[in-house]
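Changelog entry: the RagB/SusD family nutrient uptake outer membrane protein record was regenerated in this release. Current contents:
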Amino acid sequence: MNMKKILYTITLTLATILTGTSCSDFLSAYSQTMIVAKTVYDLDEVLLGGVYIKSKAMSEGPTIHRTAGFLNILDDDVNTGSIGDETSKTWGTCLSSIYGIYAWQLRIGSNFDASYFRNDNATWNDLYNRINVINILLDEITQLPHETDDELSAYIRIHGEAYFLRAQFYFMLANLYGDAYTPATCNTKLCVPLKLTPYVEHDKNKDTQFHRATLKEVYAQIIADLLQAKECLTRSPQADHHRLHRASMESVGLLLSRVYLYMQEWEKAEKEADEVMRSTAATLSSIQAFTSDKAFLTEDNPEILFSQGHNSLVTDLVFMARPGDFCVTKELYDMYDENDRRRDCFFGKLLATGDSIIMKNKYEKGSMVSHISDVFTLRMAEAYLNKAEACAIQGKAEEANQTLNALRKQRIEGYTPQSYTGEELVSQIRDERRKELCFEGHRWFDLRRYAVCESYPYSKEIIHVYHVCGNKGVSHTQTFRLEKNDKAYTFALPESVIQFDNVPMEDNPRDSREPLKADTEEETETPEQ
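Regenerated structure tokens:
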């Protein structure tokens, strides 16, 4: 058995052990210590068991230990509830575990007094592990028989899904560990290492085993993978009953539109979004879907094109705006029109703590397992927003307004179409994107790209209040400020990655951050919570 086959065997064995797929036909048919794929259908099971991210039972809220399980607590849509008399040990424990993320610290794995450090590499390791499985799968599948019509169809479809997933994973890594993409600097700005081979590269004579590719190189690979995925899934479409949790031509198109939007390639972003909008795979949810007593984002929602992975927001332990717990910012809540059905569906006010806003029915709160992710979900509303933004920045005001109004008509009772131009039009679309896609893993990345937008740059200061919890509840608070264009918009590389080589990869500059002093806090206008 050659080295490639050995590495393939090891990877599939680990995927089997770690993902619990041993009950399948393929994995029960062969030895657990010597797995050899014999058909393309075997690799289909590897795709399901070792590449797609599974939903998991939720017993805690946002966390550094799950892949991107922290993405929705970085931005200006989240703060912490007002201090009260209620004991807050439960929420204090949660807050302590992700202090370094929430307070934009240099060491994101640190707790508030630096008494311990949690590994900061979970997202990095998980996504690269999945990418490695994809690389091996793409190499191995070419050697398997695919002569029959069914085999050929599966062969093409598996290729498409693998390319889509590799693109989505690299896109996440690029936006966590690389600066926001700008055409002027993408050729020199460092991003993440590009691993595309099915074997382990290691040269004992080299002090550095991997090097960071540039933003241009990483985004070029993402685009190439998505174009390959689109071609494959057009030739061999995904079965209708698999569309929600497996890649389809439409989900590829929507992600491609998003990537072009981040690259400021507005014409291409518009084209891809428009194709998705004209598809029959999904439709915008009607205004009747937004009620105060029913979850909005469920498996039955007609506009969801794709979702994979966990949801850190469905547990009742967090985002209930209790003292010390997370809450939705009043700034976001107040952006909604009185007749906007999303406001009372997504959020609610907790009377015990005044202005604190709770997360209500955007997701299925209290669900042990949510099948709709708060990070890796693609839905039709984004296509409308992508197209509107791309049209607006190209100066196509009429098309941008039509698209924006079409979305708002299904969100706001008695809505009267509006007409905007120029910067006001772009601002309205960005605000609509914030209201529609809040807590879906968009806002932090959107703020990054707005800051470097060549046509309409925008950056803002963000304040986060952190409640330090002792044995009897909240003991005191710390206030942190993220400056405009702050270096903390890009994560430092995980410490284990830096320590791996004798001569480490170049890290991202990221400063230490202290809480604001009392007199500074008095001068700072803290956002309402």
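The chain has two domains: 3-55+122-236, 72-116+285-463.
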